[in-house]
Amino acid sequence: MRWVWFRIAVAGIASSGVIAGLLVNIDRAMRTGEDRSDVLANYFSLFTIVSSILSVVVLAIAARWSLRHPAPSREPIGIALALAAVTGPVILLGIVFNVLLRGDPAPIAATDPGWVSFMDQWATETLHVVLPIAFVIDLLFASRRRALPWWSLAVIVSYPLGWAVYTMVRGERVANPDGSAAWWYPYGFLDPHIAGYGSALGYIAGILAAFVLLGVAIIGIGRARERRG
C-alpha cells in the first residue's frame, strides 16, 4: 500500500512542476509581448511537459487501481505498459538534462523577478531530477509491477517516435512567438534550419536508439524481478 501513496506524492510533485513552468512561461510572454496562445501551445508541445503530464496521468491511474484492488495481485498489463511507456522518457530526460544541459541559463532568466526565478528552478528540479529518480525507484522496487513481454518494446518506442513526427511536422507550421523566425522547434538540435534535415534526423535516430536501449532495460528489469518473485 505504501507504493500507492508514493505514486500519488510523485504525481502531485510532477503536477506542481508543470504548473510552475506554465506560470513562468505566461509571465515571460507578458513581459516580452509574445503571443500567449502561441507560447502556451509551444509549452504543451515540449517533450518534457508532455512526458510529465503523461506520467501524472499514469501514476494517478495506477494508484487508483491499487486502492480499488488491495489484494497482492499484479497490475493489469495495460497499467504496466503505460508505466513502462512513460518511465523511459522521464529517465532519459533526467539523464540528458543533468549530463548535457544543466547550467545553461535562458537569456531572459536574468530579467526574471524573484518569484519567477524560484518557480523556474522548482519546475526544472522537479521535472528533471525528482521525477526521474522517482521513476527509477518505482521501476526497481515498486510492488505488484507486472513483467512485460518483449513486444512491449514497440509500445515504449511508439510515444517518442510519435512526438518526433508531430514536432517535425508542426515546426514548419508555427512561427517563433518572439518574431525571430517563421518556424519554431522546441530544441535547437531538431531545427533543420540550423544544420539541415540530415542532422535533425540523425539526432532523432540517436534518441530513438536510446529509447530502444532504455526499453530493453525496463522490460529486462521487470522480467528479472518477477523471476525472483
What does this structure look like?
This protein is mainly alpha-helical. The chain has one domain (2-228). Helix content is 74%, strand content 0%. The protein contains 8 helices and no strands. It has helices at 2-32, 36-43, 47-68, 77-101, 114-141, 152-171, 192-195, 197-228. Helix 4 (77-101) packs across helix 5 (114-141), helix 4 (77-101) crosses helix 6 and helix 4 (77-101) crosses helix 8. The longest helix has 32 residues, at 197-228. It is globular. The two termini are 18 Å apart. The relative contact order is 0.14.
Quick structural overview:
The chain is mainly alpha-helical and 229 residues long.
Question: What structural category characterises the helix and strand content?
Answer: mainly alpha
Number of domains: 1
Give the oligomer, counting copies of the same chain as homo and different chains as hetero. Answer: single chain
Radius of gyration over all CA atoms, rounded? 19 Å
The gross shape turns out to be globular
Report mean pLDDT, rounded to a whole number.
91
Largest β sheet strand count, sense and barrel closure? none
Topology:
Blueprint: H1 2-32, H2 36-43, H3 47-68, H4 77-101, H5 114-141, H6 152-171, H7 192-195, H8 197-228
Helix pairs in contact: 1-2, 1-3, 1-5, 3-4, 4-5, 4-6, 4-8, 6-8
What keyword list fits this structure?
74% helix; 0% strand; 229 residues; single chain; mainly alpha
